[in-house]
Every structure is written in structure tokens, then in C-alpha cells.
Amino acid sequence: MAVIVLTSATGAPGVTTASLGLALTWPRHVLLADCDREPAQAVQAGYLRGMDHGGRGMMSLAHLHREGHPLAAELWRQTLPLVQEGDVQRRFLPGFTSPGASRLFEHVWPALGEAFEQLDAQGVDVLVDAGRITTTGLPLGLLSAADAVLVTVRTSLRSLAGARIHLPTLTDQLQALPRETSVGLLVVGPGRPYSSAEIAAQFALPVWAEVLWEPKQAGVLSDGDPEPRRFFEGSFMGRLRADAKAVSERVSRARQARELVLRGAS
Ligand SMILES: Nc1ncnc2c1ncn2[C@@H]1O[C@H](COP(=O)(O)OP(=O)(O)OP(=O)(O)O)[C@@H](O)[C@H]1O
Ligand SMILES: [Mg+2]
Fold it and tell me: Do 19 and 12 contact (CB within 8 A), yes or no?
């Protein structure tokens, strides 16, 4: 079980597209949470093609928190289905709907992080689209709940230069936390021009996932473009499915190792 935060440095390398692709192929029950502090409603307006969220999402959670409701009990009710069929539940927590709203959320992040951890204890993994790192870093309440943080980069020099600037903000934040959090890279479009191996060596970080460069297929996820035939069976989603399995296994292994250390210490 896991809480995984996905983020980026500069540009729009494909965090939302990759997070959604992972949520649609995740091997267990999963919640995709739109925690981007720059509101865009990208999943509702894109993949969900304008689905009415009925007032559910982050804004409602802020309101409930203000009224003293425990968020863990409310969280699931604030979500929408990402898919209608299948044995695996795939839900979506809609994000902020106005530009300054995330500022009102400053005191809510720790409670939301705890609610994510509790969901995880109920057998639901959480994928958090945290948007960009920004100059102030990511909300500590979110990072405290995370098992892993995946930094999304494209393979151009421009994208990598941005990551070089903003990654230290994130790593400094993680170092200040009491528990160890894994950091990995999610590479969008390996080989355009740099390879994942070259990028991993440059940043001294492991590449946890690679998303293929496929503008048409990506448009299905990012913009709700019509699905080509056998979209879910094709190489683009196939690769995401393999990534989802690998990431979830990697987090499980890290968690088991951490628990062993803790048990040994007690
Ligand atoms: N693997 C991919 N192959 C080709 N195009 C992609 C891929 N992933 C994303 N894109 C395209 O890149 C654009 C930005 O994608 P997305 O919205 O996911 O980025 P983001 O990192 O979430 O951006 P932001 O920081 O603005 O939230 C979209 O047009 C999307 O279709
Ligand atoms: Mg995004």
C-alpha cells in the first residue's frame, strides 16, 4: 500500500498525464488526487470531458475541515469514479477551483496527508498530482504522508535544466522530515535526446518509470481526445501498466524494509 506524490520542476512535462495513466492501470484500488496548487481542472475538463463534480473535491474538504469534520471519514465521499467498470476501484479527487484557494488550504494539508495514509491502511493506494515544486517547495503535510516522490522530467536539456534548479528545494524538504522518503524520476519520452540512464547518472537518482513519447495517445489522457482502437492494449498504456506495477512493488519493498528496521530497533 502506498502514497505516491508526483511532481515536476518547470514547463509541463506531463505530470497530470502520467498520474492519470498510472491511476488507470494501477494494480490495486487507487485514488488519484489533484493537489496541484495552480488549479487547472485538467482531468475533469480533459479525460472526464467536463464531468460535473457536484461540488466535490479539495474545496469541499477545506470547508469540512474548517467545520471540524475529520477528513478521513469524508475523503471517499469527495471523489468521482475515473472508470465505470472493473473489479479495481479507481477514483478521482477533484482539485482547487479558484486561483488563490490553495492558500486557504495551508492548515489542511497535514489532515489531508493523514486521511491519505488512512485510506492506504484500508487497501487503497493514493497517487497525488502535486503539480510543480515551485520556489516554496511542496506542502509538508503531503510530503510527510508520502512513501515516494516521483519527479517528472522530459529528456530535453531545457527540462533537465529546470529540474536541476528546483530539485534541491524538494530534497531539502524531504531531508528535514523524520521519516525517509524515496525519490525517483519519471521520464517522459526517453531518448529525446537523453536516455534514462544518462539522466539517472546526472541526477544521481533512480528512474522509476518511463512514459513513451506518444502525442496522440497522451492526448486521450490529457485532453479527452477520442480513444484510438485498442488504446488500453497498446504500447503506450502497456508501458504505463508495467510502470504502475513496478512502482507499486518498489514502494512495497521499501516499506517492508523500513518496517524491518523499525522492528529491529524496538
Ligand atoms: N508521454 C507523452 N507524450 C506526448 N505528449 C505528452 C506526453 N505526456 C504529456 N504530453 C502532453 O504534454 C502536455 C502537458 O501535459 P500535462 O498537462 O500532463 O503536463 P503537466 O506536467 O501536468 O503540466 P502542468 O505543470 O501545467 O500541470 C499535454 O498536451 C499532453 O498531451
Ligand atoms: Mg498538471
Answer: no
Per-residue pLDDT tens for 204-241? 999 999 999 999 999 999 999 999 999 999 999 999 99
Cα Rg of the chain, angstroms:
18
Dump strand ranges (E) for the chain: 3-8, 30-34, 80-81, 90-93, 125-132, 148-154, 182-188, 207-211
- Supply φ then ψ for residue 129, to 5 degrees: -85, 100
Grid cell digits, residue 243: 510502470
For the chain, give every domain's residue range: 3-265
Segment (H or E) for 144: helix 140-145
Q: How far is the CA of 257 from the centre of ligand 2 (A)?
A: 32
- Report pLDDT digits (tens) over 92-114: 999 999 999 999 899 999 999 99
Q: Whose CA is nearest to atom 19 of ligand 1?
A: 14
Is 57 close to ligand 1, i.e. is its CB under 6 Å away?
Answer: no
Q: What is the CATH number of domain 3-265?
A: 3.40.50.300
